[in-house]
Specification:
The complex is a heterodimer of chains A (about 220) and B (about 160).
Chain A (H helix, E strand, L loop, with lengths): L4 H7 L2 H25 L3 H4 L3 H24 L6 H13 L5 E3 L13 E3 H31 L4 H14 L6 H9 L4 H27 L8
Antiparallel strand pairs in A: 1-2
Chain B lengths: L4 H13 L2 H13 L2 E2 H7 L4 H13 L3 E5 L8 E5 L1 H10 L2 H10 L6 H18 L3 H24 L1
Antiparallel strand pairs in B: 1-3, 2-3
Helix pairs in contact in B: 1-5, 2-5, 3-4, 7-8
The chains are: A mainly alpha (about 220), B mainly alpha (about 160).
Chain lengths: ~220, ~160
Amino acid sequence: MNLPHWLADWLGNPSFLLSLLSGAVGAVWALSEVMGEFKTETPRALRTAGAWLLVAVNFLAAAVIFRLTVELVPNARIWPTALLIGFAWPTVFRNLSLKLTQPISATDNDAPAIRLEQAYSNVQRLALQLINSVLTRQRMRLLNRVMQFNLADLERYARRMSAISPQQINQEFIDKVMQRPVDDDAKKAHLVALLMDNFTRDAIDDFLKENRNRELRS
Amino acid sequence: MTESPLLQTRLIELAQQLTELQRRILQCLKDKGPGLLLEVAVRVLKFTEDVHEPLRELQSLGLVETQNVRGGQFGSELYSLTADGERVVRLLNDPAFIREIRIAAPAAPDPRRQEVELLNKLGDVAKEKGELDKAVDYYQQALSIARDQRVEGSGK
C-alpha cells in the first residue's frame, strides 16, 4: 500500500512519532479524568463531544510541549523525554502561572498573569457541561419511554431488583412512592430514577426489553 | 492548592449551618455526580418537593450551581457542586470537623420537659382565671411527669 507522500514523511520523522507518544500519554490522563468523574457512565461519556474535547486538548498540549522542548533542546529528542513530558503535563505544566509583571507592592496579588490552570479548568468545565448535557438528555429519553409502561410492572421490577441485589435499597422508599397521593407518572418517575441511581441505566434497558410487549397504548 | 485562612473560616461557618439533609445532598452530588431535581431527591430517598428548597439554599450559599438542560417534564436544571461545595464536602468528611460540630450543636429540647413547662403555664393561666381545680389538675400532671423523669434519670 502506498502512503501519501506527506504522511510517509511524517511517519518517517522520529520527532513526530515522539510527539504522538507524548500526546498519547496526555490523552490517557484525560481519559482517567473522565473515568474518575463518570465512573459507571464512562462508556457513554466517551461517546460525547465533550469527552473528546478534553482528550484532544490534553493530547495536543502534551504534544506541543514536547515539540517546543525538542526545538529548544535538540538532545531531548528521545522517548523517555516524550514519556516524561506526557506524564508531567497535568502535574507540572498545567499548574503553571506565568506572571507578566511583578508589582512592587507585596500585597498586590492582581498582577497580570497567564494562568494555565485557570485556562485548563475552563476547558474542563466546558467539557463536563457538554458531557452532562448529553447524558442527562439520554436519561430523560429513557424516563420518557418508561412512562409508556404500566406502573404495576415497574413497581414489581423495582422490588425484584432490590430483593436480588446485594446493594441495600430501601424498600420503604418504594412503599412511600406507591402510597403517595400523586398521579402514576410521578410515581413512575421516582421509581425509574431510583432504579437508574442504584443499578445504572442498564437496569432500565433490561426492563424495556423484558416488557416490550406490554407498552401502554396512549 | 492551599486555601486562604479567610476562605477556610467561611467554609467552616457554611458547613456548620447546613442541615443534615443539605449535607446528604452535597455528599450525593460528590459521590454520584450532577443530577436533576428528581435524581437528587431519589438519591437521598426523598421526594422532589422535599429537596427543592434545601437545594435553592445551597445554591444561594454558592455550594451548588445549576446548568440548564432540556430535561422536559423532569426538570430543566442540572445541579452540581461548585468548587466551594467540593471543599465543604471535604470538610464534612473530616472526622475531626464532624466531632467539633457535634460538640457545638445544642442538645435537642426534651419533649417531656417541654410538656412539664407547658402544663405549669396552663396551671398559671387557670389560676389567674380563678379556675383553681383546673389549675391544681395541671400542676399535678406536671408534677407526675417531673417525678417520672427523675425516676427514669436515676435508673440510667
